[in-house]
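Re: [ENG-882] Designed sequences occasionally contain unexpected residues at chain ends

Forwarding the minimal case from QA. C-alpha cells:
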C-alpha cells in the first residue's frame, strides 16, 4: 500500500495527473495541479525559495493521494473537495496569522470565549482554508474581537468589532435609516459608492431573567471602495452588518459590527460566501454551542 502511494506521489511530481475514467474530475484536478504553488506574500525574500518548493511538493503529494482516492471510490465531488483541502492545508499564512484551518463542510466555526469583548457568548462560521489572527489579545485593544484572512487572496477578510458604551439602544437610533447609514459610509472617503443596502434582524442574547429573546434590527451595507482607501488591493468591496444590543437594567448598550472585504475582481465569486459568513453570526444560550 505504501509503495503504491509513493509511486503515485512520484508520478504526480513529474507529470500532469489525469483521470481517464472521470474526465470532468480530471479537468478539475489538473487545474488544481497547475495552481499548486504558494501565493506571493508581501515582504517575501529570496530565501523563501526553498520553502516555496517544499510547499509545492507537499501540495502535489496531497493531490496525488486525493487522485488515488478518486480512482478507487469514483466520487468526483469528494475527490475535488479533497484536492481543494490539500491546497488549503499547505498554503502559507499571511504575516500575523495562524496556519490555515480546513473543514470538509467548507466552514469552520468560531465560538467566543470569556476573554471576548462581547457581553454575551456568540458563534460565527468562517471559510475553510482561511487563517485566524494570531494576536487577538492585542487586537481587542482596538475593538477587534476576532479576525480571519484568506491566505490565497489577502484582500478577502472577515472581522468582528465590538464597541461598548453606545448611547443608542438600536441601530436606527445611532445611524438613522438604512439609506442614511449607507450614504454616510459611502461619503466617508473619496471614490466610494454604495452597491447594496438592506435591513434584516437577528435574535438578541436571551434575557437573563426571563430567557426570552427579542429581535434586533441589523443594517447590512455593501460599499465599493477605490483608490487610496483600498490600499494595495486597488478597488475593493466592503460588507458590514451592524446592530446594537441594548443593555439589561443599568447595563451598557454595545454594538457589533461584522466586516467582510474582497477585491472588486473577486467579489462576484466570493460575495455569496462572505454574505453567508456575516449572516451566520448568532448568540448562544451558553458559552458552549
Amino acid at each position: 500500500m505504501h509503495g503504491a502511494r509513493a509511486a503515485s506521489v512520484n508520478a504526480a511530481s513529474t507529470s500532469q495527473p489525469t483521470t481517464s475514467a472521470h474526465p470532468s474530475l480530471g479537468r478539475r484536478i489538473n487545474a488544481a495541479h497547475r495552481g499548486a504553488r504558494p501565493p506571493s506574500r508581501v515582504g517575501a525574500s529570496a530565501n523563501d525559495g526553498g520553502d516555496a518548493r517544499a510547499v509545492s511538493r507537499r501540495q502535489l503529494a496531497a493531490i496525488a493521494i486525493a487522485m488515488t482516492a478518486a480512482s478507487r471510490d469514483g466520487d468526483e465531488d469528494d475527490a475535488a473537495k479533497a484536492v481543494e483541502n490539500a491546497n488549503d492545508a499547505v498554503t502559507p499564512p499571511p504575516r500575523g496569522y495562524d496556519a490555515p484551518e480546513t473543514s470538509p463542510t467548507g466552514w469552520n466555526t468560531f465560538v467566543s470565549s470569556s476573554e471576548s469583548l462581547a457581553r454575551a457568548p456568540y458563534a460565527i462560521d468562517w471559510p475553510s482554508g482561511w487563517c485566524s489572527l494570531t494576536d487577538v489579545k492585542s487586537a481587542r485593544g482596538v475593538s477587534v474581537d476576532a479576525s480571519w484572512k484568506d491566505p490565497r487572496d489577502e484582500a478577502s477578510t472577515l472581522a468582528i468589532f465590538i464597541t461598548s458604551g453606545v448611547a443608542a439602544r438600536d441601530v436606527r437610533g445611532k445611524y438613522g435609516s438604512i439609506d442614511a447609514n449607507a450614504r454616510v459610509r459611502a461619503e466617508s472617503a473619496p471614490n466610494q459608492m454604495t452597491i447594496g443596502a438592506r435591513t434584516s434582524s437577528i435574535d438578541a442574547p436571551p434575557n437573563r431573567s426571563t430567557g426570552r429573546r427579542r429581535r434586533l434590527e441589523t443594517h447590512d451595507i455593501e460599499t465599493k471602495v477605490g483608490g487610496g482607501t483600498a490600499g494595495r488591493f486597488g478597488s475593493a468591496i466592503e460588507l458590514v452588518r451592524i446592530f446594537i444590543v441594548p443593555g439589561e437594567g443599568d447595563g451598557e448598550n454595545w454594538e457589533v459590527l461584522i466586516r467582510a472585504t474582497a477585491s472588486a475582481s473577486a467579489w462576484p465569486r466570493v460575495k455569496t460566501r462572505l454574505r453567508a459568513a456575516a449572516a451566520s453570526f448568532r448568540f448562544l444560550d451558553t458559552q458552549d454551542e
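QA comment: On inspection the terminal residues look reasonable. Residues 1-55 have pLDDT under 50 and may be disordered. Proposing we downgrade this to a documentation issue.
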